[in-house]
Amino acid sequence: MGKYNRHAVAVLGAPALLGILFAAPALATDSEGKDCAATSLTDLTGVVAETRIAGQKPGVAKLTGAGLRVKTPDAGSKVHAYFDIEPVKAKKVDGLKFKLIKNESVTVLAPSYQLGIDLNGNGAWDASTDAIAVWEAYQNGHNPPLAEEPVEYDAWEVGAAKYWFTKPIPGLAPGAGTQATPVPFGDFATAQPDLKILFFGLNQGSGNAGADTTWINVRFKAGKDCTLYKWKKPEPTESPTASPTVTPTTTPTVEPTETASPSTTPTPTESSSPSASPSPSDATVTSSPESGGGSSLPVTGVKLAGLVLGAATLLGLGMFLVVVARRRRTV
Description:
Elements: E1 2-4, E2 38-41, E3 47-51, E4 60-63, E5 68-72, E6 77-89, E7 93-102, E8 112-118, E9 131-135, E10 150-154, E11 162-165, E12 183-184, H1 185-191, E13 196-204, E14 211-222, E15 225-231, H2 299-330
Parallel strand pairs: 2-15
Antiparallel strand pairs: 1-6, 3-6, 4-5, 5-14, 6-13, 7-10, 7-14, 8-9, 8-13, 9-11, 11-12, 14-15
């Protein structure tokens, strides 16, 4: 139902009427009923900050975690947020609320709830011929809100909430509906049931020097159609965390130890014939432990050793016989 409105509408702000305190009627308990889905406003769409007095500071609007923080430092400072809706007849309106936090305890007045009235009936806003309906807290008996406490205002009160209009409304009593003599919304809807509402919103200033509020939400309801906007600072977008640059440690290069390749199995040519038994001359004889030898001798070496040993034995025997013969001669 709701559409953002970018009109820069000239609307009189709440007068700085200090000290006007009335017994406060019960405030609405919750502006977020089950019949009204909320739309989050994460930017300043529809918000206009300006000044009405040359040389004075303009109003300031900034999104925070709690909502839209609005400051009007000077008398001419002004901030408003208006939102277009599908045109709806005044007699169907049945729910107008907003919630805020007051950030200071100096000023008395709260922001005003406002409606754009299509007086000329052409279905489009025309500042020169159409009117703004203005609801103000002090005119409806509300004490100024305590600082830093969320407060919700009911700007409907079943048609009893009082409004004044920036232009005369046909059908109202003479002088009724001015800022000095606001009238219940029900009286306006009875006098002009088919006049249509074009937009709704909130306004702070001019005339609210020093005011500092945080707007949490604003609601408009007409029968089954309900629009609820909540101001909310957008969640920060998480950017991928850059991984710390790690300089790789130089790993010493280790030359691989040469590993003996397994013997390649010979490919048989046609069929392998069994190996021929080695001849005695080719056989290898390993010395037994008893021999104390550490090497192996082929059979040919054994034969040669035997011949040498035999020769030595014969030589020794011959020398022995010679010695024995000499001894006999000597004797």
